[in-house]
User: Which sequence fits this backbone?
């Protein structure tokens, strides 16, 4: 796993080495094993490397045979061996054994069609010096991030927004509409970000910059061409693709570990990984001292069953608050939940134990309809068919027994789901969640309200839905919304890439193999959600493969405690500092009296509801985000010598970038 | 025994201090629909019930947690008044 960044201009201009080193410094945590630079004045590419495949030869930027195509790449192309064989047959000569190199030769051979051939998780920037174009591309579901900003006469891009700011060409400033999306969906939806002028390349898309012209396109569109009945060999197909998806993700020249939550999805991943791993599998779990959130008995059982060497990060009472400011620095966005923190700590543990690649079960709930939200869709329709029924709405209460007190909320609890939206609204499935999250907006300052007046994130989302959306079943529509509003912009980012790469740990997600997704999308809804039984086909497949205790276990959503971490004895001082009236006023996002009211309630132990918990986290994280990016933003340039530094302004055009590695030295700072 | 307006005022004060402190401009009339106007949600209703039980010394059984009883300041005060009266009569 790595970090990438760079600059492209319509006309060549002088770029100081220190700027490129600062950019590298901003994303150094993603790739601590080395860094490299290519520049010819028109385009500069920066790469920080975490060595996983071809440890000796995989340094970047990396060029083709004549050096006229250069690439920086973050991620993995799992089918690189197969693509390489095809390209060699076409006459291409490979200088390395890395997956990166298939990008440059593949681009020469197939152009943009290359993207459809890739199985993997990737974000890359490819410079074609023959026509002066820079191509940016991102994987289908958005596992790897890629941001860009248009600046006068050019474009700046990077794996993280801090690389754009480090260039000095993009001034850090908040975008109220991006923030408003965070407080609607949990994250800004690509292309929007919470930063003014900074965009996120949409998953499944590419962008090309050529001499001042900017063009974008989509190479992958999510679809649900569901068959009316399940094919007779569906479980067999699933078996083949699941094994293949895990097998491809075990490809690495370093040991691959696996995250283990104790649920169905990560147990499947761990079981298959243990079968396929040449070493004893290493597994990693996070658990809580608070017994209400402790899943360790399940985790231990699975670890014993797969025979893994297991390590556990136990989260004590102070850990969430202690790491929260660091997490915001890496997620680069305000958050409405603290759930990224345990995953940040899990990645730290994984790295400390010497593992840099970890499989996860991420994506299974979206692909195989595991979330309760999909059941809500079914129950809502069931209720709508008999609006006068007293009994039907009680099904909602059965969905969330773990929320304890809500069982007593009776009719109010059901009405929350039933009244949220107009039947037929394309966002109906998600309106309860969107409206619940939007309650944070009650805390907005007058300025913030003014800045977002006239815009409606829900209306914008409705307007961006693909034409095919109307053809899908209500549950598949909900699954699509889940993918594009939560999985890509939030789970894969704030709970995935960003907290993993904070410790240079690469997450790999077999359930997000697009072939597996496409198989699931072709299955009828009932293969996945049979009645109110979630992930049905996955459960059928797993019978006899994974421990019974896991298949029988009711689904436990991943939760981390919120407000109690930040108030009371032992709470860190920064919380009160950042929520003090002057700081809240200076940031300008929230109303000082409303925040004071929330603190009063939190101190009194009264802020126990979901709305106030998310408001507390949403406000505190925005204050931390403001402090880091707009008051004290600072990046240190990388000072050690690079692995690769190709500067064609000082040297003849490279024939082979590897040879230049030994002959080119950057100017001293 | 509290009269309806007194009960209504106590309920209103509770709602303003605890569930509406971030929306000082929200007009909380007697017949404002609390669920529709997002004054209470399912957690809010639990807090409201706890408040009612403690303040007025009555018990709110699960089957009486309905919008008809708890959906507005007016319906809450009528409901509480009714409970107090039946307790006094018993």
Assistant:
């Amino acid at each position: 796993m790595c970090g990438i960044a760079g600059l492209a201009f319509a006309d060549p201009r002088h770029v100081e080495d220190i700027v490129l080193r600062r950019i590298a410094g901003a994303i150094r945590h993603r790739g601590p094993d080395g860094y490299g630079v290519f520049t010819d004045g028109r385009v500069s590419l920066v790469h920080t490397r975490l060595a996983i495949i071809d440890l000796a030869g995989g340094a970047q930027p990396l060029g083709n045979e004549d050096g006229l195509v250069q690439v920086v790449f973050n991620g993995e192309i799992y089918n690189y061996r197969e693509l390489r064989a095809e390209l060699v047959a076409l006459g291409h000569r490979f200088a390395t054994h890395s997956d990166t190199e298939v990008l440059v030769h593949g681009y020469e051979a197939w152009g943009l069609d290359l993207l459809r051939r890739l199985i993997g998780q990737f974000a890359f920037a490819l410079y074609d010096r023959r026509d002066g174009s820079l191509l940016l591309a991102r994987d289908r579901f958005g596992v790897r991030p890629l941001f860009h900003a248009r600046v006068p006469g050019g474009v700046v891009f990077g794996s993280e927004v801090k690389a754009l700011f480090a260039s000095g060409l993009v001034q850090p400033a908040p975008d109220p509409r991006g923030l408003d999306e965070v407080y609607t969906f949990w994250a800004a939806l690509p292309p929007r970000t919470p930063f003014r002028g900074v965009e996120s390349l949409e998953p499944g898309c590419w962008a090309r910059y050529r001499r001042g012209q900017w063009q974008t396109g989509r190479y992958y569109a999510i679809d649900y061409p569901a068959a009316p009945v399940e094919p007779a060999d569906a479980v067999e197909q699933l078996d083949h693709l699941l094994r293949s998806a895990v097998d491809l993700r075990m490809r690495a020249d370093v040991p691959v570990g696996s995250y283990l939550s104790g649920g169905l999805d990560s147990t499947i991943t761990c079981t298959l990984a243990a079968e396929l791993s040449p070493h004893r599998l290493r597994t990693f779990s996070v658990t809580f001292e608070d017994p209400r959130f402790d899943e360790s008995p399940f985790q231990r059982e699975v670890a014993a069953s797969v025979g893994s060497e297991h390590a556990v990060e136990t989260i004590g009472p102070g850990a969430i608050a202690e790491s929260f400011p660091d997490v915001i620095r890496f997620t680069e966005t305000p958050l409405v939940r603290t759930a990224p923190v345990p995953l940040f700590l899990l990645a730290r543990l994984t790295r400390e134990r010497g593992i840099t690649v970890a499989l996860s079960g991420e994506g299974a709930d979206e692909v195989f309809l595991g979330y309760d939200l999909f059941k809500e869709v079914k129950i809502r329709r069931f209720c709508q068919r008999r609006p006068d029924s007293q009994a039907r709405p009680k099904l909602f209460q059965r969905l969330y027994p773990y929320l304890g007190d809500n069982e007593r909320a009776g009719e109010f609890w059901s009405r929350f789901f039933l009244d949220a939206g107009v039947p037929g609204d394309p966002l109906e499935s998600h309106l309860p969640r969107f409206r619940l999250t939007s309650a944070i907006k009650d805390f907005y300052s007058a300025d913030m309200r003014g800045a977002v007046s006239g815009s409606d994130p829900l209306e914008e989302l409705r307007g961006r839905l693909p034409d095919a959306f109307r053809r899908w079943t209500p549950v598949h529509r909900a699954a699509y919304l889940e993918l594009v509003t939560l999985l890509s912009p939030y789970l894969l980012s704030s709970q995935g890439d960003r907290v993993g790469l904070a410790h240079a740990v690469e997450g790999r997600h077999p359930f997000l193999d697009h072939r597996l997704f496409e198989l699931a999308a072709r299955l009828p809804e009932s293969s996945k959600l049979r009645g109110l039984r979630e992930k049905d086909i996955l459960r059928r497949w797993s019978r006899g493969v994974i421990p019974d205790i896991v298949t029988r276990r009711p689904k436990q959503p991943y939760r981390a405690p919120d407000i109690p971490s930040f108030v009371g004895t032992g709470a860190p001082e920064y919380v009160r500092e950042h929520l003090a009236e002057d700081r809240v006023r200076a940031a300008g996002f929230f109303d000082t009296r409303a925040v004071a009211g929330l603190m009063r309630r939190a101190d009194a132990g009264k802020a126990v509801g979901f709305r106030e918990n998310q408001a507390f986290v949403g406000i505190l994280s925005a204050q931390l985000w403001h402090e880091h990016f707009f008051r004290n933003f600072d990046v240190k340039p990388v000072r050690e010598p690079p692995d690769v530094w190709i500067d064609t302004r000082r040297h003849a055009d490279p024939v082979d970038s590897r040879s230049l590695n030994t002959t080119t030295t950057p100017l001293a700072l | 025994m509290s009269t309806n307006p007194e009960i209504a005022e106590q309920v209103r004060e509770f709602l303003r201090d605890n569930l509406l402190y971030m929306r000082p401009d929200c007009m909380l009339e007697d017949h404002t629909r609390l669920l529709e106007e997002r004054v209470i949600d399912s957690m809010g209703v639990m807090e409201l019930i706890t408040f009612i039980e403690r303040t007025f010394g009555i018990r709110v059984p699960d089957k009486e947690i309905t919008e008809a009883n708890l959906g507005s300041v007016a319906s809450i005060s009528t409901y509480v008044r009714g409970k107090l009266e039946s307790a006094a009569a018993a």
The longest helix of chain A spans residues 610-631. The radius of gyration of chain A is 25 Å.
